[in-house]
Write a structure and sequence with these properties.
Number of domains: 1
Largest sheet: 4 strands, antiparallel
Distance between the termini: 11 Å
Radius of gyration: 16 Å
Strand order of the largest sheet: 2-3-1-4
Strand content: 15-25%
Structural class: alpha+beta
Number of helices: 2
Number of strands: 4
């Protein structure tokens, strides 16, 4: 519901197209590292990428990390949460 109207319905896994929505990829890089080929730095200095093409984007990130000798030890890939979907639907 948003502004008194039903904006989406269905099972949690598919609500608002969640099953087709962009995944969120996050990781940290040391200061002074050249920017990655995809994604943007957030306010905490972590790189955030919303990806609909996970294999291609991860391939580009892996090639970039290897070229700069970066381990990407905290790399995380997650599907959109119900909160992400809710915020998108109620904008």
């Amino acid at each position: 519901m948003a502004r008194g109207e039903v904006v989406a319905g269905g099972a949690p896994a598919t609500l608002g197209g969640r099953d087709r929505a962009a995944a969120v990829v996050t990781f940290s890089v040391p200061d002074g590292t050249p920017p990655p080929p995809v994604g943007e730095a957030d306010e905490r200095g972590r790189v955030v990428l919303r990806s609909r093409h996970i294999p291609e984007d991860l391939d580009a990130l892996a090639r970039w990390a290897l070229a700069h000798d970066l381990p990407l030890a905290d790399l995380a890939v997650r599907p959109p949460t119900l909160e992400d979907v809710y915020l998108e639907l109620t904008r």
